[in-house]
Amino acid sequence: MMTLRFTTADGRSIRKAVEFMLPYADEPAKPWPFAQMKGKHDKPDFNPELRRAVLAYDASAFEAVISNHGGARSKRFQLLFVK
Question: What residue segments make up the domains of the chain, in order of their start?
Answer without folding.
Answer: 14-30+44-80
